Amino acid sequence: MAALELRELRKTYRSRGRPAVDAVRGLDLSLEPGELLGLLGPSGCGKSTTLRMIAGLEAVTGGDILVGGASVAGRPAQQRNIGVAFENYALYPPLTVAENLAFGLKARPRGRRGDVSRKVAEIAERVGLTDVLGARPAGLSSGQKQRVSLARALIREPDVLLLDEPLSHLDAAQRDTTRRELKRIQRDLGHTTILVTHDQEEALSLADRIAVMKDGVIQQLGTPYEIYDSP
Ligand code: ADP
Ligand code: ADP
User: CA-to-CA distance for 230 and 224, rounded, in angstroms?
Assistant: First the structure.
């Protein structure tokens, strides 16, 4: 069974006095368990809207979203076990890194949280945040902040992980290191993941398959080799 399936997914933004925007226009996609899909496409093609609908941060206009075979399109975000690391999905400034990570677990049902401090320590170790667990977001570099976002998504052991430009704020050297770390995390934890990126190298090194979006639909879908070698 597919870990994540999008069926004829659609989103039309309507606001008074402005023309409607068909941001996503009938998107079909199916991800195998543990697969990492790279989602590419020009700005405005509907990538963020798609991720927000999967996460439950945006209502769908039509179609369905299935996680592990069950429809979640009508469920609120808290009732979907989706981990998100979005650029504008801010960390909570008054909370320390450890508290921000523990906050990621609050989205889980109480009985399924387990030992919070052990999980925080484990995930911090995995993404290299152990030394800054007591710091507040304002004191972190942008690379560290991105790691906290990633760790906060991972700590929930999500059914699906959504990453929107997870390396965008890093310089070239950090990007290299973090990309390798992401690859290791993906190998060890095997989350079903959609990764939005503009970076061809990132897509090539991390993605099992690549979907290229244009004007709200998927225009091309294939292995990185097929996508980048096609004329
Ligand atoms: P991408 O992530 O690929 O840049 P988006 O999903 O952000 O694309 O946007 C897709 C289209 O929907 C764009 O035309 C954008 O302007 C529009 N859009 C995105 N969010 C909103 C919104 N909240 N209200 C109205 N239009 C929106
Ligand atoms: P992204 O590519 O990350 O979506 P954008 O600049 O397109 O970045 O969007 C940033 C925010 O602005 C998003 O939350 C989106 O919902 C909102 N937004 C984008 N386009 C529009 C629009 N045309 N009208 C209203 N809100 C929009």
Answer: 10
